[in-house]
């Protein structure tokens, strides 16, 4: 196997050593530490890093992404048909059913755009008020179990964040369920659930399930450059997995936590290349006072009736 490239920033790319600086920008809760732009050598090192990482921790293939997209489309079709049936049984009119039928969306690494062949898809089913969580974990889970393409299906309704874990066409899916207090039009569902107002009067379990989607969406909005963020995050995820410290189940950071940490470094060095960001990642968090939270934006006190 080829040796990995040196990831340290080039001497010309070190802060305080001159070089071009970009226009002043501010992302997050403070001004950036450096506005210095990446030197050509840093761009070269970052590309070498990307090529090496592709050999040891490859991204999902186009065929694999097509298979994943097909699985998501099949799940959305099943969810849509199941919801329409329940809505009809509740004597809703066709117009009400059309407005009540919302959708399936993704969160986690899939939504962030950091997908490799072995990763699962964190998926959120957004349902109108007429659909009960109990129905989701009983009748819909039964439909999933009976589907010819589903090899495994394990509902866990009593978890802190209730979930159905399944495997369809070889793709592992973690399926969450959120019940809205008010039903938006289907085509507006993804935009509506990004707003704090939608959390009013929702049950706590639904809010927790929505949280992953909302956080991933916010991260992508709060970083200076999404592609630089993704390339840096891929390296950090690979590093953490290799060292056996990538799992919130056993007490380490999970995927969303590593994503938040990388996003903050991107905010502090908005014009750096991935190799420079990785260098700063380890420097900054080695010295970090962990009694202080790492925050990407100002924390706003929630309005009454919202669980945040």
UniProtKB/TrEMBL annotation:
Keyword list, A-Z: ATP-binding, Magnesium, Membrane, Metal-binding, mRNA processing, Nucleotide-binding, Nucleus, Transferase, Transmembrane, Transmembrane helix
Ranges annotated as spanning the membrane: 245-265
Protein family membership: Belongs to the poly(A) polymerase family.
Main location: nucleus
Any single GO CC term annotated in Swiss-Prot or TrEMBL for this entry: nucleus
Record EC number: 2.7.7.19
Segments of this protein annotated with the region Disordered: 1-28
Cited Pfam families: PAP_central, PAP_NTPase
BP GO annotations: mRNA processing
Record field: compositional bias (Polar residues): 1-11
Protein name: polynucleotide adenylyltransferase
Cofactor section: Mg(2+); Mn(2+)
Ribonucleoprotein found in the keyword field: no
Record domain Poly(A) polymerase central: where: 228-301
GO molecular function, one term: ATP binding
Principal EC category: transferase
Organism domain of life: Eukaryota
Location within or outside the cell: Nucleus
Domain Poly(A) polymerase nucleotidyltransferase: 28-223
PANTHER family for this protein: POLY A POLYMERASE, POLYNUCLEOTIDE ADENYLYLTRANSFERASE
